[in-house]
């Protein structure tokens, strides 16, 4: 990025396994015949063979180790950890903190009513007073004043589904705590926050930067099916083509993607939406295979279109829901975080993201928030939705869990200053 305040970040791979390569020990009898040509030549050959064997074994183990790390190991991807001395900020737990929440929801006009649980009648406030603490390091508290200064003249873009919109709203509210005149922060087109609108952009006039959201739940194109297709096919996802609004995401300084919640049979097959590649329908393709192909299309687009010397690219993983009961229709919001990870973790999506990002030839940071959310069945909207007749064990109340995502984004962007996380990338601290 152009600003010296940002540091480059790539997707480091999560693993704390140590790999050691030990040389084969060879016992030979020592005779004082080194000056005899035959023995001297044989000794050289033996030494050369042993050294070569050690080097080959070492290279094989080295490559295997890094390939394992690049694929995320155990289905997890860390943007900050990676080697034994590093800190995986996604390995940790939620701890009570009286210094949270970081903002007052009643003072932020950019939280949509459906995410504002307090405004919708929630009376307990314990869910607001938790912060995420990694096991091996501390995440610096979000400093709105410092971040506002660093964002002067920048453009932040979120692309994805309603979870992306939640993070977008969270960031705006976090930043507004450092703004003197709230009237200097406004939606560019005068739009109210809506779950169906495709574009929302908020201008921070005093600092000359925008925080934008583009609704693209699949990232790839939706369209009409080929002619003469089966009647059950009402629309298709073109897995080899990016969403046709993708040009509007370019030339940003921070670009944060998410996808996954709409990749379900209910939101696809049950409404007649099937997969297409080129001009051909792929009626038998599984959702996981289609998700992988869509992400590979996204990865190629990032490589060919985004100037990563300027733009920091993030991909946030799948956030777990906590539905229960018969048919996963019951939403029971707990009083505090659980001690064990629960809910629909959908780890296969995280594995796919890890694998695809590992193969990208440009820096991309994976925000692996899946397990973070798995402990927070207390932080869902539940019955405090709008309208109140809709139960919601998928989305999060604001303030809440998405605030921690944004803290991690900016902890990863800024250099190791003022107690921020020491970021390890391929063994180098940046």
- Estimate the strand proportion: 15-25%
- Percent in helix: 10-25%
In round numbers, the mean pLDDT is: 82
Q: Biggest sheet, strands in spatial order? A: 4-5-6-3-9-12-15
**Largest sheet, described in full?**
7 strands, mixed
Distance between the termini: 14 Å
Tally of extended strands? 19
| Uncertain regions spanning at least 5 consecutive residues | 1-5, 7-36, 62-85, 415-430
Q: Which radius of gyration do the C-alpha atoms yield?
A: 25 Å
Gross morphology is globular
Order of helices and strands: HEEHEHEEEEEEEEHEEEHEHEEHEE
Put simply, the count of helices is 7
The SS-based structural class is alpha/beta
Subcellular location: Golgi apparatus membrane
InterPro entries: TBL, TBL_C, TBL_N
GO cellular component, one term: Golgi membrane
GO molecular function, one term: xylan O-acetyltransferase activity
Quick overview:
24% of the residues lie in helices and 19% in strands. It is globular, with a radius of gyration of 25 Å. A hairpin with a 5-residue loop joins strand 13 and strand 14.
How would you portray this structure in words?
The chain is an alpha/beta fold. It is 24% helix and 19% strand. α3 packs across α7 and α4 (287-305) runs parallel beside α5. The protein starts with 36 loop residues before the first helix and ends with a strand.
């Amino acid at each position: 990025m152009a600003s010296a305040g940002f540091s480059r970040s790539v997707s480091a791979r999560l693993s704390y396994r140590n790999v050691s390569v030990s040389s084969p020990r060879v016992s030979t009898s020592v005779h004082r015949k080194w000056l005899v040509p035959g023995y001297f030549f044989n000794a050289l050959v033996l030494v050369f063979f042993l050294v070569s064997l050690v080097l080959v074994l070492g290279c094989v183990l080295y490559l295997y180790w890094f390939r394992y790390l690049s694929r995320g190991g155990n289905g997890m991807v860390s943007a900050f950890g990676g080697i034994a001395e590093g800190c995986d900020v996604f390995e940790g737990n939620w701890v009570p903190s009286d210094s949270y929440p970081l903002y007052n929801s009643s003072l932020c006009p950019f939280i949509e009513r459906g995410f504002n649980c307090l405004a919708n009648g929630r009376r307990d406030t314990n869910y607001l007073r938790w912060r995420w603490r990694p096991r091996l390091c501390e995440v610096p508290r979000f400093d709105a004043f410092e971040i506002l200064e660093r964002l002067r003249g920048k453009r932040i873009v979120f692309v994805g589904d309603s979870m992306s919109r939640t993070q977008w709203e969270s960031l705006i509210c976090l930043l507004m705590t450092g703004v003197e005149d709230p009237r200097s922060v406004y939606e560019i087109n005068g739009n109210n926050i809506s779950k169906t609108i495709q574009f929302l952009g908020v201008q921070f006039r005093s600092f000359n930067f925008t925080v934008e959201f583009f609704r693209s739940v699949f990232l790839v194109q939706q369209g009409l099916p080929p002619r003469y297709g089966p009647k059950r096919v009402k629309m298709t996802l073109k897995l080899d083509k990016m969403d046709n609004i993708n040009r509007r995401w370019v030339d940003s300084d921070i670009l944060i993607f998410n996808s996954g919640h709409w990749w379900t049979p209910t939101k696809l097959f049950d409404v007649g939406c099937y997969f297409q590649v080129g001009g051909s329908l792929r009626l038998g393709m599984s959702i996981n295979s289609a998700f992988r192909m869509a992400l590979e299309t996204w990865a190629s687009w990032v490589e060919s279109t985004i100037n990563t010397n300027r733009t920091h690219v993030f991909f946030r993983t799948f956030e777990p829901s906590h539905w229960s009961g018969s048919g996963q229709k019951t939403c029971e919001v707990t009083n505090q975080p659980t001690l064990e990870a629960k809910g629909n973790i959908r780890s296969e999506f995280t594995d796919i993201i890890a694998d695809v990002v590992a193969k990208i030839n440009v820096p991309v940071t994976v925000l692996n928030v899946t397990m973070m959310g798995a402990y927070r069945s207390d932080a869902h909207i539940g019955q405090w939705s709008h309208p109140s007749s809709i139960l919601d064990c998928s989305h999060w109340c604001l303030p809440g869990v998405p605030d921690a995502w944004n803290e991690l984004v900016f902890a990863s962007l800024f250099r190791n200053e003022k107690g921020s996380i020491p970021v390890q990338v391929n063994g180098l601290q940046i």
